[in-house]
């Protein structure tokens, strides 16, 4: 082979190798923990856990972060923080510097009410799950609660309604698998505003954008308040429910369930005596982690403040994907109300 051709061939291989590396997840991503109350004085905070390190470090807090719900890292290394901000309908998004020290509001079109989660779509836009927004007045017309799935454009200038309710009543989670988007709703089949665990109101939808419609992928049984989900390679879903207590239903402690769309089954997968309000989950370094907002693994108890506690509540648990066995993975006296786990490169 001529020298020039060999050089071009090597260059092509090197380029393909770099491209492949760029698409892969970093080998040692930091774990970020979003806590909606740990900043003190009605502020939230974000903690970091480094791979192989014990405990957590405070990564970011700000007077602007009132009740942060989620965090996403941007391509330039900075972050976007989704914030419930103010009860009654003022959701916001903040931009956080790479080091977590600078926080400023991202100016957005009006519309967010009770934002709970957001995810990057393949086209670079951000899809936002809003548990209470009713931009088209459909909920008001039907005289029932409704939620909305928004699309924030790549240039962050417009908010587009992808889906709203009815049929959406209490959307709580979204994930992308390739170009496919899957949206979870806790109460889509609820009748007359009353919960009946035998009805199985919640569901997972496949979201179609052109034309806009929701296709039911799985319908839940026995679940009460599903908030987090993880899609397994087999197509089954692990769903974290904050209230579906498998031992004493009236106690309303949460658990993790496996939902099989093909078999149309909802089965208990993981439970633990510590679980109080398990809310979300993530796969991190080969570990399936579940965060509980109100467990008390450090046994600090309530402090008589009226708020219930000032720190040390909430924990992160590791679930064995083969057996469903649960063990404590991380607890900290700095936690107050941890809600979300995310991976990042710092």
Radius of gyration (CA) equals 21 Å
The biggest beta sheet reads: 4 strands, antiparallel
- The number of distinct β-strands equals 24
Helix share bin: under 10%
Tell me the name of the CATH class. Mainly Beta
Keywords:
41% strand; globular; 346 residues; disordered N terminus; Methylamine Dehydrogenase, Chain H; mainly beta
Task: Characterise this structure.
The protein has a single domain, classed as YVTN repeat-like/Quinoprotein amine dehydrogenase (Methylamine Dehydrogenase, Chain H), CATH 2.130.10. About 10% of the residues lie in helices and about 40% in strands. It has helices at about 5-25, 140; strands spanning about 30-35, 45-50, 55-60, 70-75, 80-85, 90-95, 105, 115-120, 125-130, 150, 160-165, 170-175, 180-185, 205-210, 210-220, 225-230, 235-240, 255-260, 265-270, 280-285, 285-290, 315-320, 325-330, 340-345. The strands form 6 sheets. A 4-stranded antiparallel β-sheet has the order 3-2-1-24, with no helix packed on it. It starts with a helix and ends with a strand. The model is unreliable at about 1-25 (pLDDT under 50).
At a glance:
The protein has 346 residues and is mostly beta strands. It has helices spanning 3-23, 138-142; strands spanning 30-35, 45-49, 57-61, 68-73, 79-86, 90-96, 103-105, 115-120, 126-130, 148-152, 159-164, 171-177, 180-185, 203-209, 212-219, 226-231, 237-241, 255-260, 265-270, 278-284, 287-292, 315-319, 326-330, 338-344. It has a single domain (28-344), classed as YVTN repeat-like/Quinoprotein amine dehydrogenase (Methylamine Dehydrogenase, Chain H, 7 Propeller).
């Amino acid at each position: 082979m001529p020298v020039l051709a060999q050089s071009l061939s090597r260059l092509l291989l090197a380029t393909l190798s770099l491209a492949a590396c760029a698409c892969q997840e970093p080998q040692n991503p930091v774990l970020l923990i979003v806590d909606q109350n740990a900043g003190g004085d009605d502020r939230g905070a974000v903690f970091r856990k480094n791979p192989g390190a014990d405990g957590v470090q405070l990564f970011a807090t700000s007077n602007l972060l009132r009740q942060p719900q989620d965090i996403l890292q941007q391509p330039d290394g900075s972050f976007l923080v989704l914030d419930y901000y103010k009860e009654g309908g003022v959701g916001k998004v903040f931009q956080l510097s790479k080091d977590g020290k600078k926080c400023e509001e991202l100016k957005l079109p009006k519309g967010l009410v009770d934002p709970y989660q957001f995810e990057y779509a393949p086209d670079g836009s951000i899809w936002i799950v809003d548990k209470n927004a009713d931009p088209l007045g459909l909920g008001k017309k039907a005289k029932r609660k409704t939620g909305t799935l928004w699309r924030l454009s790549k240039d962050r200038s417009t908010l587009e309604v992808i889906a709203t309710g009815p049929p959406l009543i209490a959307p709580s989670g979204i994930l992308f698998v390739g170009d496919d988007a899957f949206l979870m709703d806790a109460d889509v089949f609820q009748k007359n505003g009353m919960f009946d665990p035998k009805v199985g109101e919640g569901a997972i939808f496949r979201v179609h954008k052109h034309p806009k419609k929701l296709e039911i992928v799985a319908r839940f049984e026995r679940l009460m308040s599903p908030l987090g989900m993880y899609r397994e390679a087999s197509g089954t879903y692990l769903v974290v429910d904050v209230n579906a207590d498998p031992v004493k239903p009236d106690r309303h402690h949460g658990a993790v369930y496996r939902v099989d769309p093909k078999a149309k089954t909802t089965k208990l997968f993981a439970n633990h005596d510590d679980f109080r309000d398990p809310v979300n989950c993530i796969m991190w370094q080969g570990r399936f982690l579940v965060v509980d907002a109100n467990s008390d693994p450090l046994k600090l108890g309530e402090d008589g403040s009226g708020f219930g506690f000032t720190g040390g509540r909430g924990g992160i648990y590791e679930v064995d994907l083969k057996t469903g066995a649960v063990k404590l993975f991380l607890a900290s006296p700095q936690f107050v109300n941890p809600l979300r786990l995310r991976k990042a490169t710092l």
